[in-house]
Design brief:
Blueprint lengths: L11 H37 L6 E4 L4 E7 L3 E5 L6 E5 L3 E6 L1 H9 L4 H13 L1
Antiparallel strand pairs: 1-2, 1-5, 2-3, 3-4
């Protein structure tokens, strides 16, 4: 079977033009659109994992501790005077300190630490 009839009357320069446009679209997708969507997904996961007690920074530069969370908003405690400000979750730039990270060392009792050390020593033998 010959498919040469498909190329009859088609100029090669027009094929290269179309190919260039397709390559440009592929370039934009892999180097601009895809990384942006990945970043948006990571930001959404960060906002969904927000818990009371976390210290956050807003896009406006306000730093504080989360005191309550609702569906799309959260309340931030900002100063020693216990000033409360309500924000949309989309206003979070970053979570600076997670409450789980600060509580983890406190949850480990001194009695558990020597037991874990002896288990590690047994494993290395």
């Amino acid at each position: 079977m010959s498919f040469s009839f498909l190329l009859e009357g088609v100029d090669l320069s027009s094929l290269f033009s179309i190919g260039g446009i397709v390559l440009l679209f592929v370039f934009f997708y892999f180097f601009m659109i895809r990384p942006q969507k990945k970043k948006e997904k990571e930001d959404q996961e960060m906002r969904d994992a927000l818990t009371v007690g976390d210290e956050v920074t807003t896009i406006g530069g306000i730093i504080g501790k989360v005191v309550s969370i609702r569906e799309e908003t959260f309340v931030l405690e900002t100063t020693k005077a216990k000033t409360h400000i309500r924000f949309l979750k989309g206003a979070i730039r970053s979570v600076d300190v997670r409450i789980q990270d600060t509580l983890a060392p406190k949850l480990e009792t001194p009695e558990e630490a020597p037991a874990q050390e002896t288990e590690k020593a047994d494993e290395s033998k």
